[in-house]
């Protein structure tokens, strides 16, 4: 259930500059259709004064709503999802959405933390294969949502992950025949979804 607010909350999103998941978190927060502040923390100088924020969280990314802070990528995604209505339509769907979203984030993190190029390429190929099988085994070919009949944060994580790989020059060679090698994943990630804020979900 979407939270009913008596007044607009104060929302602050803290994340590292140039984080691979930065666009994902901005998209999730923007579904609230409320103003929010984004604080970019420098990777070379985490205590830099340019953030302009007191009491910046020590663990990133982090989301602060009216003084209450949640940290780390998975919990932040889940907190935003509940806040803006991007979770499952039932407890069962909600659990499935969280499971799928968490698994995709784990694959993404595995790629980001791999130190060698050969290891990163192997992890990317493995991740894309697993996600293509996930989408292909998830029902009809024209299915546009991973779970249920409405957009969830798991859908957005999957689309942003594929776009991150596509837009990363390091992996550009993997996309010469992407639509043939990963047809289900390509179809899912390329599908146009008109929902851009909380009011489009209902």
From TrEMBL:
<dbReference type="InterPro" id="IPR036282">
    <property type="entry name" value="Glutathione-S-Trfase_C_sf"/>
</dbReference>
<dbReference type="InterPro" id="IPR050213">
    <property type="entry name" value="GST_superfamily"/>
</dbReference>
<protein>
    <submittedName>
        <fullName>GST_C domain-containing protein</fullName>
    </submittedName>
</protein>
<dbReference type="GO" id="GO:0004364">
    <property type="term" value="F:glutathione transferase activity"/>
</dbReference>
<dbReference type="InterPro" id="IPR004046">
    <property type="entry name" value="GST_C"/>
</dbReference>
<dbReference type="GO" id="GO:0006749">
    <property type="term" value="P:glutathione metabolic process"/>
</dbReference>
<feature type="domain" description="Glutathione S-transferase C-terminal">
    <location>
        <begin position="115"/>
        <end position="191"/>
    </location>
</feature>
<dbReference type="Pfam" id="PF14497">
    <property type="entry name" value="GST_C_3"/>
</dbReference>
<dbReference type="InterPro" id="IPR036249">
    <property type="entry name" value="Thioredoxin-like_sf"/>
</dbReference>
């Amino acid at each position: 259930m979407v939270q009913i607010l008596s007044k607009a909350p104060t929302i602050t999103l803290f994340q590292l500059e140039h984080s691979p998941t930065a666009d994902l978190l901005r998209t999730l927060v923007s579904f609230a259709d409320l103003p929010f502040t984004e604080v970019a923390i420098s990777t070379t100088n985490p205590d830099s004064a340019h953030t302009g924020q007191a009491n910046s969280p020590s663990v990133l990314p982090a989301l602060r709503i009216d003084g209450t802070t949640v940290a780390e990528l998975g919990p932040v995604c889940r907190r935003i999802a509940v806040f803006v209505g991007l979770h499952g339509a039932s407890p069962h769907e909600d659990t499935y959405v969280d499971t799928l979203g968490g698994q995709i984030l784990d694959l993404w993190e595995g790629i980001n933390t791999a130190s060698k190029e050969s290891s990163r390429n192997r992890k990317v190929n493995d991740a894309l294969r697993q996600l293509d099988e996930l989408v292909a085994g998830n029902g009809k070919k024209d299915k546009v949502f991973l779970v249920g009949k409405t957009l969830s944060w798991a859908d957005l994580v999957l689309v942003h992950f594929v776009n991150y790989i596509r837009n990363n020059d390091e992996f550009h060679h993997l996309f010469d025949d992407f639509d043939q090698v990963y047809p289900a994943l390509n179809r899912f990630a390329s599908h146009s979804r008109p929902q851009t804020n909380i009011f489009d979900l209902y």
